[in-house]
């Protein structure tokens, strides 16, 4: 996925890029955050993930399932017995060295276009784009979808809570479901702000016009080009 993105942007003129993520319902968080480095001249800082403090999340963090992926959160959950905190400390989903392993691949200015249907990983990508000041966000709605959480499906929950005494049991008739397991908070100038329920506010709000609807968003794209042309 990332190599293909690198290939495509390497073919593009370096005098300005419009990334239009309207309607994108999300995908893999790691991919979304790794893309940010391609547009940044300095290391990017990834958004933070938090478990709710509970006996179940302590069990997830303290066992070795999936290579102990949640071990970094264990001490924070244990300390919640003293502090009474609802959520754990926040940590990035993967080490910063991985998030920044490739580096910048596009040198020109970038505009990101968002709407209220941007969700999940796209929320997180937009938040990282704004928090790391990679360019201007031009939005047709006042916020992105505000659902930037890390979701686990039922099968994954069974894998991270294994054993005969696990409360996570197989669902009948092959049914499946997924839940938000870790909330996301923002970094840098927006440090600590939750992404859920708030979403990402654009740097500039521009409602769709009649010409946008009838002529392939020409007013919206025109405004994005004007922003790219600004010194």
List the helices and strands and how they pair.
Elements (H helix, E strand, L loop, with lengths): L1 H9 L6 E4 L8 H8 L11 E4 L3 H8 L11 H10 L12 H4 L10 E5 L6 H11 L4 E4 L10 E4 H7 L17 E8 L18 E2 L4 H5 L3 H12 L2
Parallel strand pairs: 1-3, 3-4, 4-7
Antiparallel strand pairs: 2-6, 5-6
Task: Explain this structure.
- With 231 residues, the protein is of the alpha/beta class.
- It contains nine helices and seven strands, in the order H-E-H-E-H-H-H-E-H-E-E-H-E-E-H-H.
- Helix 2 runs parallel beside helix 6.
- The mean pLDDT is 94.
Task: Please supply descriptive tags for the structure shown above.
231 residues; alpha/beta; four-stranded parallel β-sheet; three-stranded antiparallel β-sheet; 9 helices; elongated
Task: Describe, in short, the structure shown.
With 231 residues, the chain is an alpha/beta fold.
User: Residue-averaged pLDDT, rounded?
Assistant: 94
Total helical elements: 9
Radius of gyration (Å): 20 Å
SSE topology string? HEHEHHHEHEEHEEHH
Give the CA-based shape. elongated
Helix and strand composition category = alpha/beta
Strand order of the largest sheet: 1-3-4-7
Could you describe the largest sheet, including whether it forms a barrel? 4 strands, parallel
Helix content range: 25-40%
Distance between the termini: 32 Å
As a percent range, the share of strand residues is 5-15%
Query: What is the β-strand count?
Result: 7
Poorly predicted regions are none
